[in-house]
Amino acid sequence: MSHPLAFANQSIYHARILLNGWRALAKQASEPAEQLALAFAPPARNQLLDGYGWLLLAACRITQVPSAPPHSVDDLPTLPTGLVRPAEVDACAALERDGWVATLKQPITRASLSTRPGQLASDVSGIELRHFEAWLHQ
Questions:
Q1: What average pLDDT does the segment 75-86 reach?
Q2: pTM for the structure as a whole
Q3: Which of 98, 63, 92, 100 is nearest to 75 (CA)?
Q4: Those residues with Cβ within 8 angstroms of residue 50's Cβ, 6 or more apart along the chain or in another chain
Q5: What is the spatial distance between Cα 34 and Cα 112, in angstroms, rounded to a whole number?
Q6: Residues near 111 by Cβ (< 8 Å), separated by ≥ 6?
Q7: In this predicted structure, what is the pLDDT of residue 124?
Q8: Phi, psi values for residue 95, rounded to 5°
Q9: Is the Cα dihedral 61, 78, 93, 3 positive or negative?
Q10: 3-state SS of the chain?
Q11: What gap in Å lies between CA 79 and CA 61, rounded to an integer?
């Protein structure tokens, strides 16, 4: 695998494995939901961001892959002479400013995974498994 698209597929596959594990343990209800989120959310986030970065590189037709993918349009390498930035990448830049990618890029902390006072446990403010599942299908 040396093409960015292959690396993107691998990252997305690994994210899916993490989310499947998270979902299976959540169904068992043997561990607190917040602890499962703290264990699974950071590596799932990293895999999704890696997949996103590899897809950015593939969209730009960059074949000289870096050791790690960018996590932002701003971190993309300079395009070779004669190539212009694809419209898809401009759309991604907009999502990074105000969209699901902006939310995905937010740091994961205990505060982003806990409930607000006066809310039911199902009304968690912040990041939940369902958010990651939705991002996986974007």
A1: 87
A2: 0.82
A3: 92
A4: 7, 11, 68, 69, 71
A5: 10
A6: 126
A7: 37
A8: -65, -30
A9: positive
A10: CCCHHHHHHHHHHHHHHHHHHHHHHHHHCCCCHHHHHHHHHHHHHHHHHHHHHHHHHHHCCCCCCCCCCCCCHHHCCCCCCCCCCCHHHHHHHHHHHHCHHHHHHCCCCHHHHCCCCCCCCCCCCCCCHHHHHHHHCC
A11: 9
Single-letter residue type at 41: A
| Model confidence pLDDT, tens digit, residues 19-49 | 999 999 999 989 888 889 889 999 999 999 9
Question: Which amino acid appears at position 94 of this protein?
Answer: A
- Distance, in Å, from the CA atom of 111 to the CA atom of 106, rounded to the nearest integer, reads 12
Can you give the length of the chain in residues?
Answer: 138
Token pair recorded at residue 63: 């074949």
The tokens for 78 are: 């300079």
Between 128 and 11, residue with greater pLDDT = 11
Q: Taking 90 as the threshold, does the pLDDT of residue 73 lie above it?
A: yes
